[in-house]
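Q: Predict the assembly, please.
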Amino acid sequence: MFQQKSEQRIAECYHCGHRIAMSMAARSVTCPRCYRGLVLDDLIVRDSVSGAKLITCGRVVVERKGRAVTRHINARDGVEIEGEVEAQVSSGGVVHVGSRGCVRGDIAAASLVADTGAVIDGFCRIGNPQA
Amino acid sequence: MPERETTATIIGPGTKIKGELAFEGSARILGGVDGQINGTGELTIGSGAVCQAAIEADTVVIDGTVEGDVVARQRLTLSSKATLKGDITAAAVAVAEGATFIGHCRVGPEALANPPARTTTTIEPKAKSRAQAPEWAGEKKTTDWTPTPTTAIPENAKPTWMAGLTGSA
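A: Predicted assembly structure:
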């Protein structure tokens, strides 16, 4: 009888929303529905980063000295910000802005935590607004 | 019987207030408020409460539904059943998973230092006459314009170029 492996991870495609089961060791995968490549790693910003997008199925972490100036940050598992971010942030998990974190841009997430001292300036869409 | 340390203001379920509510210490709203809530201390909007109000307090905990701008001088907490539609200005914010928040967010010490200007409309009685112009403006020169009298055009009048035309086609 077929036995499911216990060490599996489920990721959600950030293009089409399809849920994919894969090995814990996988670092990238192609979505079987939309055939587009997905990044599974956590992205850690330790220095200055500028560009179009930071997208991953994992988490995006902007460390204390990190600075991300991009058009879009999309992390399905969550975003942790201790540095400076100028981007449109969206996440299926928690967006956590630490006490030294600064976000200038719109935020769309399931949940938002801003510590004392954090700076957020932008339009927020938290939770499920359709409900 | 032990005395309470702080007097709590409680708006019970089924109670609805229209207007401005001011409190000191702590307040718990389980009913509804339409208007404005100002206070020093902790304000809790309980589960099931519906407020259409601009809220300003030190600490704001929202468990119910709020439509309006919220200013929390210390901390704003949205629990998992909370719904907030409006702009927030706070020193710190925590939004639990499941909560809904739609609006502009200004969080941090800078946000509190420069709070957004509250839009208020002042209704004043209409002035009977127009305000006088300042002295430096001098007297306003007005010219009375009167239309020049028009002469009535006779019904059979023809333009001069038609004078030479005679007969029919």
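Strands of chain B lie at 8-11, 16-29, 32-45, 50-62, 65-67, 70-78, 83-85, 88-90, 93-95, 100-107. The longest strand of chain B covers residues 16-29.
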